[in-house]
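Why does residue order matter? Because the sequence determines the fold. Keep that principle in mind as you read this record.
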Amino acid sequence: MGLYPQYTPGGVAGVVAADDGAPLSYTVEAAQGPVRLRYFAPPEPLCAYFGSLYIFSVSSSGYADATRADVPQLRFRLGGRGGNYIFQDGMVMPTPEVCLLGPTFGATRFRLEEPSRVLGISLLPAGWIALYGDDANSMADSAFDMVTCDAEYGRLLQKLQGMEDADAIASLCWSFLQTRIKPLPDTTWRLLEAVDGWLMDEGSPRIEILADRTGLSPRQLARLTNRYYGAPPKLLARKYRALRCSARIVLDRESWQVLCDEGGFYDQSHFIREIKHFIGLTPQQLQNDPTAVAQLTLLRRSLGGDVAVINRMS
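Structure:
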């Protein structure tokens, strides 16, 4: 069994275990029992539309945790019943069997009533357009049942629930999504490339730089990033700065105090508030006692060049 070093309470080195025989498959021992997550990179024709596909499983009842601010997610409940999401504004929503979550801009808590197995796919902006079409900000920090707008998702779920082989499950999902993709104008692809690159810049990206790269005014950029990413540039920059810092704290074991100085934060209190808001944990908790889901989600960074940089980070 391979090991991926992490931290446990008290600063003692612990591990996330890489499962034998299953690439990019990891297990964390949580208080209620093992939590597992396996990642799959998309086939090349879908890389510009979707990030990773993942299968998440938990063996206990009443499991509760939080996910960090993220890109939109399409999720299928393969096993288990019941559960809900609690979004950053306190809104509670039951989890449908086929759920489309919009982009989130704060940590989202969740609870699973039974042992569960969930398949998810991360959506890049082009994938959001293909599956939903409307402005992403209209669904920010919210979710809805995909079966209500397209019965094909329900039929796909029934097939997936009857399957056990993870590779076959992933293959069927990619084949289904291939039928949903839509060509985009070259101008849209150039904008998405520019925004992605800007968000992945180190430090605190400034909107003036993005305006120079795209030739668009701040007002035009806000309209377009609301449509494709769910928020104006300033909020996006804050979100991805927090995501980068959290990965460096947990995976690279960097000092959060040093990252605070490097990241353009006003002071340590500002840094702590930003990390807590977007990640759901304080820097100290990330460093010494990250939750199971926090650790497993951050391991998306290990997907490498087959997955868009922005999706490895978020």
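Residues 1-15 have pLDDT under 50 and may be disordered.
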